[in-house]
Design goal:
Blueprint (H helix, E strand, L loop, with lengths): L2 H13 L2 E4 L2 E3 L1 H12 L21 H12 L6 E5 L5 H17 L2 H15 L1 E7 L2 E4 L5 E3 L11 E8 L1 H11 L4 H7 L7 E10 L2 E9 L6 E7 L5 E5 L12 H4 L1 H21 L4 E2 L26 E2 L7 H19 L15 H41 L4 E6 H22 L8 H15 L4 E6 L9 E5 L8 H17 L7 H13 L46
Amino acid sequence: MNLALIKKEIEDFKTKAVTITKGFTFNQPQTINEIIYGYNSKFMEGDFDNQGDRKYYFNINRSACDTTTKGIDFDTKNINISTAAGGNPKQTWFFERDLKFWMKDQNFGKTLNGIFYRLPIFGSVVIKIVGGEVFFVDLRNFMCDAGVDNLKESNFIIEVHYKTPLDFKRIAKERGWDYQPVLDRFVPSNQDYIKIYERYGEVDGVYKRTLIAEPAENSQFILSEDSVKENPYFEFHLNKLPGRWMGIGVVELLTDPQIRINELTNQQVKSSYYNSLRLWQTQDQGVNRNLLTDAVNGLVLNTQSPITPIDMSDRNSGAIENEINRWSANSDKITFAHEPIRGQTTKGVTLGATELAVGLGGAFFGQIQENVALDVKQLLYDVIIPQFAKENSVKHSLRLVGEDLEIYNKMLIDIRVNNKLLSSLKKGLPTKEKFEIMKALVSERVKRGKEKLIDLPNDFYKNLKYKINIDITGEQVDVRTRSANKFAALQAITADPTLLSDPRKRKFFRSWLEDGGLRLEDFDVEEEPQLNQIVQKGSGGGVSRPTMPVSPIAGQTQQQL
């Protein structure tokens, strides 16, 4: 593979439009350029018209993009790990907590925020994984077959990097490249940057990654060419149209409303220039003065014909305003960015109509959110979790606080109490009173401290069987509705405590909570006995044979805990 062939692929990508259907074509570089201009309130043909007057950009796409971002957003707290068939639930429990701490350290939440911010603007987001680290790809410098459905179908993927000499030297040292010939060729050139072409595609029937540096015109240096299994890119799309790779974003959807609203806005601006003028008319040829500058207060004008003001009012302003409102309403319908979705109230609109608009908007964004969640889940399976497992295969510590610490303490209490029961079986089963005292003593010892560092042994997550669930249920429920649902759940538990104990009722209660955006675990609390609350009831009465829980940490004995 040489640079001439790569440049030929780039040239075809830029100049040859993709035919979606007869009379309907698509040019990806041009579309990206238009999106950048539109989102940043810039006219591609310049900010001044042919009369030298400034043109004003009435941006309607930024707020719609922000609304879409809010509608499809989810965070790392929505990523849950469950146990697959044949797996250890307690091992999975530690794995989920450990993974979320690791994702926090790796700023994976920031990566998700970056995806949700960029997705409505461009319609597509591409990230690149290098050594477990996530990089966002600049679509201006990213080329592929514009007519394919996904990157796996593309004959080539090309990314152009622009590096300063210092940055190139740093990267070359890390990769073991011979950088001096490149720098020697770059210094006398007039280029601002050293271009590096990174291409993925077949070369002589073998899928390869090719890196070529171009320090000057008609100059190339092959840095590396290696066989690889696949490309390191992951793609996310907002709305897809058959026949083109790039998704359709909010800015592109609002192209026509944005153009027309800008035209109407600037017509109003032009009209305001004329409306501000004060002109008079008369048939008297003897009047030759500027009444604004030559006339003074109290001056008597002797004229053969009356001087009358010229009506400069704009009689079309109402029609222009109505058309602007129509286009604005059209943009809201296209993007589902209605006022209730944006958190605004509308005068004259009933509560039922507002709730219907919120529900429809939530369903629309929920579908997009689900599609993005599937792509994020694939990213987790393919890259994030394998990288986490690689880094955490050695012995390490896990910090537990809050609710996680309470759950761990409960597991530890159960194990230690059962260990004591086993050791006392030779003397017979203890009475119920002694059992409660034993449990209270263990509970007080275990619960000391507001946090704990748990040592996880080597290969703790080896042979782990898990499933990834991205729970986006209730993301569209606002704070007031969620608070009302919590209060209703509290009332239900108070009226019927068996909702948490009866299996049939518990299943129904769980479903009801999930419909309201809540989880059963938020209300499922088991209190441990306190030593000072145990009442002396006399002797007698034994306890049932205990069921032995599995150790919360695989590979450690119950005695070690």
